[in-house]
Amino acid sequence: MIRLTRCYRFSAAHRLHSGSLNEEENAAVYGKCNHPHGHGHDYFLEVSVTGPLDPATGLVARVEALDRLVETQVLNRLRHRDLNTEVPELEGLPPTTELLAAAVIRMLRERWQEAFPAGHPRLDSVRLHETRKNIFEAFCSI
Amino acid sequence: MLITRKVEFSASHTCRLPGLSDAENEALYGPEAHPRGHGHNFSVEVTLEGEPDRVTGMVYDLKRLKQILHERVVEPFDHRFLNLDVPPFDHVVPTLENIAVEIWRRLQPDLAAAGVRLYRVRVSDSDQTCVEVLGEPQ
Q: Helix crossing, B96-113 with B62-69: angle to 10°?
């Protein structure tokens, strides 16, 4: 199997807070990430695709097509946004990086077929670095 | 258990198909298609899979792996123009994908002879793109 990974950056704000918990419980679960006024991160996003190696071109994916899809579907929606209030895909959810990584998979899948009508490459996974120390990886099940 | 050794080499290449025009090649390969070639600092991570030896505690001797990587990859690739100097890139387009596959093919015989399983070859040409070969390429 051949897997190609492209990397992107975006900055966004969030506050970890669950509507299912009271103030005290939120503070206990999320610690300083629950600070009422929120905070932000420089996220580092890796998008991995797999597919057959085209013997004529030597390519697994058209990188420009992947870049365009990530730009329109993901970066334009997340860059410099407040993840709690400005991203419909996270509405009603605590904007943890686990759920953000899963949302990125959904955003990409929405238009994947349009971007890659030949049926390949397939989306393999996204790896989202919240900081240099916290990294979250979600796999595409289809 | 997986163990990884990393090496780097610097080389130039250009990605072009001979039957296509300049515009078609640029549409296909982007700036990688510039006719005069360009260079990268390629980074190669080679990962082996196995269990630690009961006596040595090692999956494989990394000194030996370092030697194999030097002989099979760094020495032939470093400071070369891949399209002209490194077969099969005289007739195979040296995309990152094909470079990763070629490195797998060059390493596999030595590692198979040593009885160790090559798990992954990961090659990057920048901070933004990498390609992994996971298992024998077709």
A: 130
